[in-house]
Every structure is written in structure tokens, then in C-alpha cells.
Amino acid sequence: MGSLPSPCGHLALDDESACMIDRRELGTLFESQRTHLNYFFDNLDLEQALSFAQALLDAPGAVFFSGVGKSGFVANKLSQTLASLGFSRSAYLSPVDALHGDIGALFPLDLLILISKSGSSDELLNLVPCSRAKGARLISITSVVGNPLAALCDMNVHLPLEREICPFGLAPVTSTAIQMVFGDTVVAAIMRARKLTKEQYARNHPAGKIGKSLIFKVKDLMKTQEDLPLCKEADMIMDQLTELTSKGCGCLLVVNDESCLIGTFTDGDLRRTLKISGEGIFKLTVGEMCNRNPRTIKPDAMAVDAMQKMESAPSAVQFLPVIDDRRVVIGLITLHGLVSVGL
Q1: 280 and 186 housed in the same domain
Q2: DSSP secondary structure of 45-91
Q3: Structure confidence by residue, pLDDT tens digits, 119-178
Q4: In a domain? residue 1
Q5: Residues 45 and 169 in one domain
């Protein structure tokens, strides 16, 4: 079998100067990209952006995005982002596959957004008459003035492009950046206009950390009933070692006869008590050595808030007793339990 060519062409891999990135040149490129992005922001027609955003917001049917090459990746990403908000049906329509049957997904009153730097891609131009025959409304997003695609669509949004930072001024590395920035900013405007709540957003992101942080409440993840390491303040410390260690919580919840929380006693408290008291620990009750002012949380609090409370100053803790308005212990939530579900 032949070997793959060197990533630096004909230069030997052991030549340390072969493929080194120059720090100053890299810094210059970032500055150039910043300049080109600022050019986009400074010259964007806000009225065009507003009309486009309103068209998305008012779309009576589905919203399809299409593009070729790198613009196609941007179109695909924006369609997924819009779909994740749950406002309307949104999908990516490949311009090639569309002409081989996928255009069947397009119905009258649907919106088709065609993203292209040049506005002269044959694949998109060929898609226009077929989409019109289906009754769709067409919007183009382009960066070249006077392009043929813009002339064929119902609306065009011009994205000002000073130049690509590619050494040849050809590779779409700045144009795709402004396409993504423009699209994502419009999506954010739609979220604000629709007054999207965290709960609505979470419904469409149940598996990821975003959804979990917005969906899970303390009562969904807390230990309850027989899993709680409960004891009374008059119990001897040494008599409660089994309860302290067997429940896997690293603590005891000290309660009164009405199950109201008095305090907590941790395995750390056990070590400190043993170090200070020595054999005297055999005569000490849990109530004498427990923390009577522990951090607590309510069952309807968000799980992510419980994690923040555990990690807050002055020192982190591994658990929080869950109590009701009368301080009755109804559960225990642990840091391990939060981490295990992906928070």
C-alpha cells in the first residue's frame, strides 16, 4: 500500500520548520477577520434584516433552508436551530436531492430560504422555478450585488462582505461566518418576539445538559423514605455508624419526633469528633455534635439550583436535606445524584 502524502507537501516530516504556524501571522488573521466582521455589522441593512425576521416569524407553513457547499452547512444548522425552538416545522432541503424527489416536502405557503455567497449557484437557480411551481415563497441571502438568484426571489437579504481572509480571497471562511452570525441573530430575535420560556425551550432539549438543567427539579432526583439516613438527636454516635455508612449518603439527617430537621451529621463530622474526643466519642450523642444550621432546599427547586447551592461559599457540601415549609424532611439530594444524570 502507498503512504499518505506529507501534510506539508514535499517537505520532510522531521523538518521542524516545515509546518509551523507563525504567531504574528495568526494574530494578523484574527485582526483581519475582526475587521471584516465589523464591516458586515457596520453595513448591514437593518430594514432587510427586520423584513427577513418578520417573514420567518409570520411564516404560515414550514420553513426550509437550502444552500450549496459551505453555505449548505450553514443552511442545515439554521434549520435545525429554528426547529429546536418548536415554533414551526423547519428542515434543510438539499438542492440536488430536491430535484430528485425531495421537493415533494414543499407545499404552498411554505417558505424556502436560499443561502449563497455569490447567488449564482446553478443548483439553487435550477431549484427556483420548481419551488415556485409548488407555491412556495422564496427568500435569498447573498453577498454579491446584482446576482441572478436575488433577482428571481421574492425577497433578498444582502450580507455585506468586504473580503475573505483566505490568502486567495476565495475560500468561504468569512462569508460563512457572517451567514451564521446573521441567521443565529435573527433566530434570537424570534425567540424574544415569541417570548420563549425556559420551560418551552427545555421540552425540545430533554436529553442534553440544557434540557436537564431546565427540566429536572429536586423532587425528581432526591432520595426518599427508606433511603434516607435518619436518626434522633439523643441517639449515640457509635450506634448510628451503620446508618451513616449503609445509605451511601455520607451523612445523617437528625430529626425530631415530627420528622422536622434538627441538623446534619456527616462522615467528616465523625472524623473530626473522633480526633478531638478520642474514646469520649462513645459517650456523645448525635445531637451534641451535629450541625444545626445546614443548607437545605425545597422539593420544587430546580436541580441545577441545588448544585449551585452545594458548590457555594464558604465551602462546598455533598448533599442537601429536602424539607417542606414546616421543615419536615421529605428527601435528600446528593451531588453524586446530580452528576449521575448529567448536570
Answers
A1: no
A2: -HHHHHHHHHHHHH-SS-EEEEESTHHHHHHHHHHHHHHHTTSS-EE
A3: 999 999 999 999 999 999 999 999 999 999 999 999 999 999 999 998 888 889 999 999
A4: no
A5: yes
